[in-house]
């Protein structure tokens, strides 16, 4: 039994998780700085806010490192909090924390701070979505969730597809037209404010919407997926396979779950499926992986926490070892 506790990631305390995660994350950050691959160097986000953040990061490299590491850590803590606070799985563990750290440092965009910020905003939106699964009206949580999803296209244009996550949330929590109006206002408010500012500067009232559309669809995405290293492709396929297995396991075990954990997990699965097509948009780059790491972490963590013991161990160790081997090979080459 003691040997099983040693290798079973769901039974490890947080301190042990940190000791294991930090070297792997350090390896990923070192590989990103010394040997970035094509997914990380192809394309940047030209949205005004993203450009300003990237310029600030270039001028203040030390603060950039501090903000990136703090953002990764805080996002991982939030994902673990969602799983623990809302009892998404029966066993209390810190699996989302370590899985997110692995995924987020495996593929990092050239605009690292922008990618980390987008991942953090996505996680905060998911936290507000989880708070919406309660009886009675939840205008505040629904509005904040929609507002955060509405902010994302101003940083990264392909996340315009995130707008579909808000109707999915309202459908799952079975709200009426009042919260639908509240969500619509929150979703459109950021773009409306920025459009008004640009209109005051002499641009057309629809300039920002046109600019987001051009940034999202106006490029050739094949540039990003061409010449991907073999090791990176293998890890991506392995993670995708485990995500599919986790969704199948969730579907089969849905009858034994309570209403709120079931709704939260279904929202994460739906969000992952509906936002994955942004990988194939013309303006997509590695920031897409930073954003998708949040829902993917929750889905994979469900498999590790609720799957058969051998399947859970195989999932965790294949992902971890695949990432370590891939980063080591790229550094060696």
Using DSSP, what is the number of strands? Answer: 0
Radius of gyration: 20 Å
> Beta-sheet strand percentage?
under 5%
The CA-CA distance between the termini, in Å, is 41 Å
The geometry reads as globular
Helix/strand structural class: mainly alpha
Tally of individual helices: 16
Helices and strands, in N-to-C order? HHHHHHHHHHHHHHHH
Low-pLDDT windows of residues: 1-5
Mean pLDDT: 84
Largest sheet: none
Helix content: over 70%
Written overview of the protein:
The chain is mainly alpha-helical and 333 residues long. 75% of the residues lie in helices and 0% in strands. The chain contains 16 helices and no strands. It is globular and about 60 Å long. The relative contact order is 0.16. The model is unreliable at 1-5 (pLDDT under 50).
List the topology elements.
Layout: H1 2-7, H2 14-34, H3 38-41, H4 48-59, H5 61-85, H6 95-106, H7 112-131, H8 139-155, H9 165-173, H10 177-200, H11 207-217, H12 222-225, H13 230-252, H14 259-275, H15 287-306, H16 309-332
Helix pairs in contact: 2-6, 2-16, 4-5, 5-6, 5-7, 6-15, 6-16, 7-8, 7-15, 8-10, 9-14, 13-15, 13-16, 14-15, 15-16
């Amino acid at each position: 039994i003691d040997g099983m506790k040693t290798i079973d990631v769901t039974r490890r305390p947080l301190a042990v998780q940190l000791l294991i995660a930090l070297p792997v994350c350090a390896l990923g950050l070192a590989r990103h700085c010394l040997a970035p691959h094509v997914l990380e160097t192809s394309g940047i986000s030209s949205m005004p806010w993203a450009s300003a953040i990237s310029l600030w990061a270039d001028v203040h490299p030390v603060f950039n490192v501090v903000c990136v590491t703090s953002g990764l850590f805080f996002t991982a803590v939030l994902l673990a909090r969602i799983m623990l606070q809302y009892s998404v799985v029966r066993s209390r563990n810190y699996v989302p924390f370590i899985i997110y750290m692995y995924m987020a440092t495996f593929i990092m965009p050239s605009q690292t701070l922008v990618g980390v910020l987008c991942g953090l905003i996505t996680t905060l939106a998911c936290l507000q979505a989880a708070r919406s699964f309660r009886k009675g009206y939840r205008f505040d949580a629904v509005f904040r969730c929609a507002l955060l999803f509405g902010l994302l296209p101003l940083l990264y244009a392909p996340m315009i597809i995130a707008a579909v996550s808000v109707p999915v949330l309202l459908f799952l929590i079975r709200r009426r037209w009042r919260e639908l109006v509240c969500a619509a206002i929150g979703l459109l408010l950021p773009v409306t404010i920025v459009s008004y500012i640009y209109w005051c500067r002499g641009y057309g009232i629809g300039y920002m919407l046109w600019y987001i559309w051009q940034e999202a669809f106006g490029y050739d995405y094949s540039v990003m997926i061409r010449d991907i290293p073999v090791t990176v492709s293998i890890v991506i396929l392995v993670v995708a396979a485990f995500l599919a297995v986790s969704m199948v396991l969730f579907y089969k075990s849905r009858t034994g779950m309570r209403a709120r954990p079931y709704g939260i997990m279904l929202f994460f699965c739906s969000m992952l499926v509906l936002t994955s097509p942004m990988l194939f948009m013309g303006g997509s780059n590695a920031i897409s992986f930073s954003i998708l790491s949040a829902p993917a972490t929750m889905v994979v963590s469900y498999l590790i926490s609720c799957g058969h013991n051998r399947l859970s161990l195989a999932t965790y160790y294949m992902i971890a070892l695949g990432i370590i081997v891939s980063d080591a090979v790229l550094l060696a080459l």
